[in-house]
Amino acid sequence: MRKPITKPGVYRIDADAYHADPCAVPSLSHSLIQVLLDRTPAHARLAHPKLNPKFEAEPPTTEQAFGQAAHAMITGEGDRLMPIKAPSWRKTWTQYRAIQAKGKKRIPVLEKDHRRIGRMAARFLRWRAQLPRDLQMDLSGGEQTMIWREGDPPIWCRIRPDLLSILVEKRAATIWDYKTAPDANPDVWSARTLYQTGADIEAAFYIRGFQALHPEIEEIDFRFVVQERDPPHEIAVIALGPAADHGARQRIDRAVAIWRRCMIADDWPGYPALVHYVDEPNWVAERDQGRAARWEFLERMAAGPMPPMREDA
Question: Domains in the chain, please, with CATH?
């Protein structure tokens, strides 16, 4: 068993150890920030493996499992994939094979998905070869875990960038985050996925962590590389604009302040005991506007003379 990490720095640890929190003190990740912002500290405590004695990681969905396998292939850990010849995960024996694979630190993947991921990886490498030399990614070691402390009193934080491009002489770096999606169209992905999954928080928090550990790097960019799961497996590069980045940083500052207060007091409150008044969302008014003509017709019918009662024969 690996000893808990007690010093800030860059570490090589596997995904399971990272998600179990390798720090000696419970640390903050971008996914926990999203829980703090979307729900409450009480929910964040239950979602943290070191704060919840009964914590159990939720099994990935089919889409998440596919994304994790593609992720491993792209970030240089394709040898960890274990193809399983089966049409789906529904059969008990295939689920047992998956458990066996995970016990061997392998990543189970259906054979048909393994072939598709291979085609995606080939497309990714062709796309990568077209990048300018300054943006070439380091695929040599897979993901790195970065751990730092910040604030007073300090809290521990962690990130795990996928891929990096670092130009020491120019004091510049680009953090690349690989995603799979049914549609990589930037307009569609940003509207449906970016804010729903907290990817904006991820981008700003990763830049924050990289700056903490690499103060000599003056310019840091974060890019999402979104690849479609279906042919032709096209790729789009997406980044936060200035307003989106500013908003994400503000939300992170708020979440960090909440986390620090909860860690100090060991108090994890839920929703406040208040009445939450709500206004109707815009879509309700738009829906009613579309129904207006039908309602007017029905109101005119109701205001007219009553039809004669039908007499049963």
Answer: 9-265 (3.90.320.10)
What span, in angstroms and rounded, lies between the C-alpha atoms of 48 and 40?
Answer: 13
pLDDT at 309: 65
Please write the tens of the pLDDT for every residue from 173-198: 999 999 999 999 999 999 989 999 99
Considering the entire predicted model, what is its pTM?
A: 0.86
* C-alpha–C-alpha distance, residues 82 and 117, integer Å: 12
List pLDDT tens digits, range 23-63.
999 999 999 999 999 999 999 999 999 999 998 887 778 88
| pLDDT digits 0-9 by tens, 162-177 | 988 888 778 889 999 9
Task: Decide: 210 and 173 in contact? Cβ < 8 Å.
Answer: yes
Query: Could you tell me which of 73, 148, 82 has the C-alpha nearest to residue 117?
Result: 73
Task: Label residue 219 exposed, middle or buried (CB < 10 Å: 0-12, 13-18, 19+).
Answer: exposed
Among all chains, which residue has been given the structure tokens 């994790």? Answer: 68
Q: What is the pLDDT of residues 206-242, one digit of tens each?
A: 999 999 999 999 999 999 999 999 999 999 999 999 9
